[in-house]
Each structure stands twice: as structure tokens, then as C-alpha cells.
């Protein structure tokens, strides 16, 4: 049998190539955290400042994480975090924006 054996990659949740990726994993966790925070706070009209700012920062960290990501699992998590951050950002903008209520008008 001339089959190629592949190494087992079940040891790590994020590194499917068997190598450590601390920067990419940190960006993944930050993006997921900001995305969840933005998405949850966007459900409350009075928390639009938190949802819009965490969403904006989550979009930037997720975009940079996608740029330097190495594994498919990282990209998958980053897309989930980016989506949640974008939804939270847009709902926060619709409820008052980044500076709503602070700048007098």
C-alpha cells in the first residue's frame, strides 16, 4: 500500500500545522471577545457607545488577524468574530454612533 500517512493534528485546537502561533491566537481571542461584547451590547439601545467602539476595534483586529493568519481554524474563528463585531458596530451606529450623546448639538 502506497498511502501517505499524515501526522495527527489533534493536539492543538488552533494550530493545525503542529506549530505555535501566539500572535495569531491572541488576535483570534481578542477578536472573538470584542465581537461577542459588541454583539451583546448592541441589543441594548443605551449601550451604543460600547457596541460601536468594541465593534470598530474588533473589525480592525479581525482584519489584521485575517491578514497574518496561518491555519484554517484561525480564519474560521476570525470570521465569526469579525461578523459579530460588524453586526454590533452597525447596530451601535444605528443607535447613536461612536460619539452619540457626548458631543452636544
Topology (elements, then pairings):
Layout: H1 22-41, H2 48-68, H3 72-95
Describe the structure.
- Keywords: Membrane, Transmembrane, Transmembrane helix.
- This protein has helices spanning 22-41, 48-68, 72-95.
- The chain is mainly α and 105 residues long.
- The N and C termini lie far apart (77 Å).
- The mean pLDDT is 87.
The gist of it:
The chain is mainly alpha-helical.
In terms of per-residue confidence, which ranges show pLDDT below 50 for 5 or more consecutive residues?
none
- Helix and strand pattern: HHH
Major sheet: size, sense and barrel closure? none
Number of strands: 0
Strand content: under 5%
* Overall residue-averaged pLDDT value: 87
Number of helices: 3
Q: How helical, in percent, are the residues? A: 55-70%
The chain-level structural class is: mainly alpha
* Multimerization status: single chain
Principal-axes geometry comes out as: elongated
Rg measurement, Å = 18 Å
The end-to-end distance, rounded to whole angstroms, is: 77 Å
Features of the shown structure:
single chain; mainly alpha; 3 helices; 0% strand
